[in-house]
Design brief:
Blueprint: E1 5-10, H1 12-29, E2 35-41, H2 45-52, E3 59-67, E4 80-81, E5 93-101, H3 105-115, E6 124-130, E7 142-147, E8 152-153, E9 169-172, H4 174-177
Parallel strand pairs: 2-3, 2-5, 5-6, 6-7
Antiparallel strand pairs: 1-9, 3-4, 8-9
Bound molecules: inosinic acid (IMP) and magnesium ion.
């Protein structure tokens, strides 16, 4: 799998060091509140698991599942929710966790849907954020790493459902994405 990468951006130890920092920041910000984490499947699985075990606070965990990619390396703009019922978030401090902020379509749709359920606050936390103009305006409150606008895989991120189990984050070779 690693030979399909053009180059590695972040090795596992660097990713874990960054999680230590992010977890400390989140733990400090939420020290007086019980947070409900809403993780976006499947991309945030590794991030969720490694980050949440570093946060020593009482919290609730729910997941939402959306489809928007239709197997290609670009976003379609259409975000489909796979489950009928969303978690009960009325009056709660929620924290949305996702793998990557790209065009913004996915997180804008999730934020809009959850906002309608009247949580008290609704910050976003992403493992990666691409430096680019976005189709939808979305600001992440917590960002693991900012990256250039390239197609990357690993650490939960896929290309056609593959590479999620790569322990590093890297740029997929262009001829494989084409
Ligand atoms: P957005 O709706 O364009 O912001 O895209 C968000 C979703 O697209 C993420 O949750 C990922 O599943 C996927 N995605 C965006 N960029 C990449 C990438 O570089 N590699 C793998 N998946 C990506
Ligand atoms: Mg994906």
């Amino acid at each position: 799998m690693q030979c399909d990468l053009e180059r590695v951006l972040f090795e596992e130890p660097a990713i874990h060091r960054r999680f230590d920092e992010l977890a400390a920041q989140i733990s400090n910000d939420y020290r007086n509140h019980e947070v409900t984490v809403i993780a976006v499947l499947n991309g945030s699985l590794m991030f969720m698991s490694d980050l949440l075990r570093r946060i020593p606070l009482p919290l609730k965990l729910n997941c939402v599942s959306v489809v928007n990619y239709h197997g290609k390396a670009q976003t379609s703009g259409e975000v489909i929710f796979k489950q009928v019922a969303l978690p009960d978030v009325i009056g709660r401090d929620i924290l949305i966790l996702d793998d990557i902020l790209d065009s913004g379509h996915t997180l804008a749709a999730i934020r809009d849907k959850l906002e309608a359920a009247k949580p008290r606050s609704i910050p976003l936390c992403v493992l990666l954020s691409k430096k680019k103009p976005r189709a939808r305006h979305v600001d992440a409150d917590y960002v693991g790493f900012e990256i250039e606008d390239e197609f990357i895989v690993g650490y939960g991120l896929d290309f056609m459902e593959r590479y999620r189990n790569l322990p590093c984050i890297g740029v997929l070779r262009k001829e494989l994405v084409a």
